[in-house]
Amino acid sequence: MRKPISVNIHDSHLGIWQDDARDETLRSEVYAELIRRMRSRGWSIRRNPEVHHRHRCISHNYRLGARGTLRCEIELAGRTVKVEFWSTTAKQENRNGRRYDFNKLKRMAKLDRLRVELEFRRITAWLKTLAPVEVERRDEQDLPAMQRIEKRYAESWHKDKELGRPVCSYDSNRRAKDGALLEQGQTVWFADRKGRIVRGTAYYNINNMWWVIAGGKLFNEACFYLLTAAPVDLRTKHNERARRNRLEAELQIAVKRMDYQRAHVLKTIIFGAEQTYMIWARDNQAYYRSQYAGYSSDTAGAGRYTRAEAEAECRRVPHELEMVCPDGTHVSFDRSAA
User: Fold this and answer.
1) What is the CATH number for 208?
2) Which of 97, 179, 188, 278 is deepest in the core (most CB within 10 A)?
3) Residue 186 φ/ψ region, left for φ over 0, alpha for ψ in the -120 to 50 degree band, beta for the rest
């Protein structure tokens, strides 16, 4: 009898693992067969165009699927086959797309959520015809925050056996934003996604990440975002990045509408009297969008930067980036191009 197959389900993600499986066996018996079975259930499955464009040699290990309002990605990685689902109608928070939102299953409409659960059951039932199946479900969103941390500690491979939890061994992984060193159970302050200052209690997770319980909710924050003392003005929102993104989006809309008076006012609010620059990425043949996030193939969607911002970013990766001046000329900081 073949060794058991492990199925790990977390949120809208399902992972299939078999310890003794060879690559070619997993590809033919699980990866390819899974795709065939999903197609027979009405899924339209094709190659991932982005992976095919950037990494053609591994493109055959990545597939995208669609059925109604549901989308999925199927990936073969080593001895693991991964399937991740998301819905095109779910409430979106991540600017890069619904696929990158947290709690994708809970964000889905009821029918989409039930369809995903049905896919989980169908995949598991089929795998049971191949070998014994061990299913682990890691949905823990309904647990109290402290219980979720304790559960993670119990499952962690990196914990200290005597303490029963991970221990931070390097000061760099516990150095807070204000330079102080974090301690287990310490009170900290940080800005949430909307820029509001939140107070909570910090517990070490792994590397430079710390769990923070605040207002009954659980956050996973890097140490360099945490403060060990309360900010002077707790009412001031720390949302400079979101503010800049919103203003630049309004600026682009004003330009498209040829409302140049409003565009001038917005440009003055963002940059003052400074001239603006763009950043060109050679490998993508596109411009940076606002706040160094994403790419645009035309100048209308390109982000604007001060000279200092653009030059600093281009000098960081000089072999890939070029600074675009207001007159359209490109400036390269690559020594080989100098």
Assistant:
1) 2.30.30
2) 188
3) beta
End-to-end CA gap in the chain: 65
Q: Is residue 239 part of a domain?
A: no
β-strand 5-10 against 133-137: which pairing, if any?
parallel
Q: Which residue, 115, 137, 159, sits at the end of a domain?
A: 137
Interhelix angle 32-40/110-127, nearest 10 degrees: 130
91-132 pLDDT, tens digit per residue, is: 888 877 888 888 899 899 999 999 999 999 999 999 999 889
- Extract the tokens encoding 49: 């165009």
User: Structurally, how many domains does the chain consist of?
Assistant: 3
The rounded distance, in Å, linking the Cα atoms of 76 and 63 is 9
Across-strand partners of 212? 202, 219
Residue by residue, DSSP assigns 234-275 as TTS---HHHHHHHHHHHHHHHHHTT-HHHHHHHHHHHHTT--
Residue 89 has which token pair? 């109608």
pTM, two decimal places: 0.52
Residue 309, number of CB atoms within 10 A of its CB = 19
192 assigned to some structural domain: yes
Residues paired with residue 3 on neighbouring β-strands, in sequence order: none
Torsion sign, CA atoms 240, 242, 245, 246: negative
3-state secondary structure of 146: helix
Q: Do 37 and 149 reside in the same domain of the chain? A: no
Dig out the tokens for 191 from the structure.
């800005």
pLDDT tens-digit profile of 227-269?
999 988 888 777 787 888 889 889 989 988 999 999 999 999 9
Q: Are residues 48 and 87 in the same domain?
A: yes
Q: Let me know how long the chain is.
A: 338
Q: Is-contact 190 226, C-beta < 8 A?
A: yes
C-alpha span between 305 and 277 (Å, rounded): 5
Q: What single-letter DSSP state applies at residue 289? A: -
144: Cβ contacts below 8 Å, ≥ 6 apart: 216
- The domain containing residue 80 runs over which residues? 5-137
| Cα 32 to Cα 76: distance, rounded to the nearest angstrom | 10
Give the three-state DSSP class for 305: strand
